[in-house]
Design goal:
Elements (H helix, E strand, L loop, with lengths): L2 E4 L3 E7 L14 E7 L1 H11 L4 E7 L4 H9 L7 E3 L5 E7 L5 E6 L8 H8 L7 E4 L6 H10 L3 E4 L18 E5 H8 L4 H11 L4 E5 L5 E5 L2 E5 L12 H14 L4 H16 L11 H10 L2
Parallel strand pairs: 1-4, 1-8, 2-6, 4-5, 8-9, 9-10, 10-11
Antiparallel strand pairs: 2-3, 6-7, 11-12, 12-13
Helix pairs in contact: 1-7, 3-4, 5-6, 7-8, 8-9
């Protein structure tokens, strides 16, 4: 069983600020850094560090050598990675003193993914394999449908939310990973339990995972609801917290972990991530997560 991540790759440009810039305002950044990111890349790195064999498919530009190297150094297979004429996707990130972030993404090469490319990549995978998708690349609905037709498990992290999302073949999805903002956008509900219940009602055959910030995570499979809280750690940077959780949780599913254990490992990995600066650089390896859990029984 293998995991294919058809996902975004961005060069993250992070500006540390005392507070987020407001309309009409000019502020000075306290610090600046440039590193590899994008929801797709971060989630592939998390999957690999969790011990899963993961293949990353997607597009980079001629300027994307650092993105390829980051994947390979993290243990991600890049044989399906392609180079587009456009420049690589990138993100401008504001990071404030409380570790919160505001992010502007430019799609670049992430928006050069074609249906022909998707077909060529999916030829290498079969029923029972996993396909992970976000909403930062082109032709996501096509990939979703084609993978489901092959009998693959489709995992969807619907970020960012777009008006077109409701037209996607979402009943092809085996597992949804959403935060409270995405959950409200999909259901119109605000209370966490109501969001979870509505998503389950609409997609009863899917595993629903709802991350709710400081309140931890809710998960429903069938009629059973699981909960897991957050670990008390100093918050430095939340940029890759959700992606770290996503990668570790999917790795747990693919490796046959029980849902409770997958949620526990993913929550621990995410907690370690927020205690460090950076996006993909903040993602811990499995040994770190196991050590962390041994100290937080």
């Amino acid at each position: 069983m293998r995991v294919l991540n058809l996902g975004s790759l961005n060069i993250d440009k992070t500006y540390t600020v005392e507070r987020f810039v407001q309309e009409g305002q000019t502020i000075n950044a306290v610090a600046y850094s440039s590193c590899c990111g994008g929801k797709g890349l971060n989630q592939s790195v998390a999957l690999a560090k969790a011990g899963m064999q993961v293949y990353h498919a997607g597009m980079i530009g001629q300027d994307g050598g650092m993105l390829r190297r980051k994947l390979e150094e993290s243990g991600v297979c890049t044989e399906y990675l392609a180079v587009a004429q456009e420049e690589s996707g990138h993100a401008l990130i504001q990071l404030d003193a409380q570790g919160r972030n505001c992010i502007i993404c430019y799609g670049g090469a992430n928006h050069a993914i074609t249906t022909e490319y998707i077909d060529a990549v999916l030829c290498g995978f079969a029923a029972g394999d996993y396909l992970l998708l976000q909403n930062e690349t082109t032709n996501v609905p096509y990939a979703m449908q084609r993978a489901a037709e092959k009998g693959m498990h489709v995992v969807f992290n619907p970020s960012p939310i777009t008006p077109e999302l409701r037209e996607y073949p979402l009943r092809s999805v085996s597992c949804f990973l959403v935060n409270e903002v995405e959950g409200e956008a999909l259901t119109g509900e605000r209370e966490y339990e109501a969001i979870l219940a509505e998503l389950h009602r609409t997609y009863p055959g899917a595993i629903i995972v709802l991350t709710v910030g400081d309140s931890g995570v809710l998960c429903q499979q069938g009629e059973k609801v699981y909960r897991h809280g957050v670990y008390d750690v100093p918050v430095v940077d939340t940029t890759a917290a959700g992606d770290t959780f996503c990668g570790y949780f999917i790795a747990g599913l693919a490796m046959g972990q029980a849902l409770e254990q997958a949620l526990r490992c993913a929550s621990a990995a995410s907690s370690i991530s927020v205690s460090r600066a950076g996006a993909s650089d903040s993602i811990p390896c499995r040994q770190e997560v196991e050590t962390f859990l041994s100290l937080h029984c």
